[in-house]
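fold-stage: in
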Amino acid sequence: MGPAVREWEPPVTDEVIRTEGLTKVYPGDIRAVDGLDLSVGRGEIFGLLGPNGAGKTTTAGMLTTRVVPTSGTACVGGIDVVAHPVAAKQVIGVVPQTNTLDRSLSVYENLYFHGRFFGMSARTAKAQAQRRLEQFRLSDRAAQPVMALSGGMAQRLMVARAIMHRPATVFLDEPTAGLDPQSRLALWEVLGELHREGQTILLTTHYMEEADALCDRLAIIDHGRLLALGTPEELKASTGADTIVTVQTRPDDLDRLTQVLGREVPGAQQALRVDPHVVVQVRGADRIVPQVFAAAERAGIDITDVSVAEPSLETVFINLTGKDLRE
């Protein structure tokens, strides 16, 4: 089962997030984010996709006032987050990687008091809390302490809390990291509902399936730099291939097999060594597996495993960096 999260296509007209030359340099000349230019439209789910250490969390931190940029500018909801951090906090909702729920409060109280903190009347905060509990499938847990929640439920509650004050943008940092598949799907469905309501969402993730399923557009980043930007479909089409063949052999034969398959497999656009495999991008897949075995056999190389798939965001990342997103 997969949630239909992109049924409604938002107009990318009103700009909610803009960065220009956004840069963060840590001591030791470590450039966590390097000259990032982004524009996110109202109602989009926008993703920052990249491996751990790519600069995704630092970027989200600068946009949410938690990290001060070294240079460049960042605006959210028309507010300069560096010049006016207090005002910026009023128009953003944040769901961090760690559980920041108040453990001394019940599930309902975490929502109610958040609303009150952001200036809601008691009546409005109560109504909004009850509405979000229903929307996020937590009504039956309202009176329970947050310690009683599973990881997936706690994550849903943090999202519900983040949108209580109707922020211009919700930032989610690796929202499904550590969740089991069922909890991940449940959160995807909730984010899909928010999307259809017109909520702008920026999420960071290193899960290519998550970026593909959720995002209207995404930026692939690595070592703090923007490598590619577009819809998942546009990025996958940019590979120029329609079939990806992943081949495994002995480590000593990987380089030679890469050369052989890139040269001899019909329709091969390119072959790359991505340890411990060779990844071949092919246009046209007629009898591709026998062709791969035949080419390897002619070269005297034994193949231990072969898999065939369509191009993915993983393929795009490999093309851009020469390495696997999971590395």
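fold-stage: in (second)
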Amino acid sequence: MNQPARTLVIACGAIAHELVAVIRQNRLSHIDVQCLPAEWHNTPQRIAPAVEQKIVDARKTHDHILVAYGDCGTGGLLDKVLDQQGIERLPGDHCYSFFAGKDVFDAMAEQELGTFYLTDYLVDNFKRLILDGLGITRYPELKDQYFAHYTRVVYLVQSDAAEQLARRRSAAEQAAASLGLPLQFHVTGLQPFEHSLRGIRIAAA
């Protein structure tokens, strides 16, 4: 019996947990995952060159390479690298679209443009990535500069585990309160994310 070709997924650390969960659920043992730091969303100029180096290195060890990133603030630089390398990435500008599903996310964005989105990962790491990472902890006046045009927070909930949901609900409420914005919940589960992954043939043997 032929073994599936080895596939490497180069991913943003912000979606690592969900990515691994989908791979395990589908028993895709031929797929390996390597993640870049999620906090690079605060310094997106680092993403494209780092992904390019990962691709160059991976060509020596894997038959196929996929990139689980959106544009993620690179201003098209990531797409330029991937076009040059002949590599596919997840469709969309960022992980919020992956988790909600493109049509649902587009509708939410159109309904209220000034929305700050939370995911399970961002809820768990809000202080480190947002308050500390953007300097708000040290300089509280930056909050109004960063979030002056936001009107709400929407938490896109991936996990359905009751204990985790209760904890994260409380953490999301605290996060929204720290920004002075109202909070809404939208349960996505993993199905839209898995659909996005299949769109770049991640489940193919």
